[in-house]
């Protein structure tokens, strides 16, 4: 197994794990949702289902291209929640994360994840 395939497999399992966590750690995801965004609970569950499906899709070469596009779109869709977390000290305190981790680590990681999803869409 080459490095790219190992990375794709790791990403797939990571998305599955995070997707599942939407169902047993729902309160975490609810806390980081901007108040202006509608349907909080439904959005947490839908994004969790998407992450599980996309994680599974990454594991198969036939579905990897479309799955990667889905991941990119999902990461763009959840970016406002990460921005809200980065600039909301109250939420950071509630979930036990520092402002440094929320803004200077978590936000740039979104772009890295988008890049990795793009890379995984290529043969």
Structure description:
The protein is an all-alpha fold and 123 residues long. It has one domain. It has six helices and no strands. The protein has helices at 3-24, 26-31, 40-58, 61-86, 89-95, 99-121. α1 packs antiparallel against α3 (40-58), α3 (40-58) runs antiparallel to α4 and α4 packs antiparallel against α6 (99-121). The longest helix has 26 residues, at 61-86. The radius of gyration is 15 Å and the shape is globular. The two termini are 14 Å apart. The model has no long low-confidence stretch (mean pLDDT 93).
- Give the termini separation: 14 Å
Radius of gyration: 15 Å
Work out the strand percent: under 5%
Total tally of structural domains: 1
Overall morphology: globular
- Total beta-strand segments: 0
Q: Which stretches of 5+ consecutive residues score pLDDT under 50?
A: none
Structural class: mainly alpha
Helical run tally: 6
What would a concise description of this structure say?
84% of the residues lie in helices and 0% in strands.
List the helices and strands and how they pair.
Elements: H1 3-24, H2 26-31, H3 40-58, H4 61-86, H5 89-95, H6 99-121
Task: Output the keywords.
single chain; 123 residues; mainly alpha; 84% helix; globular
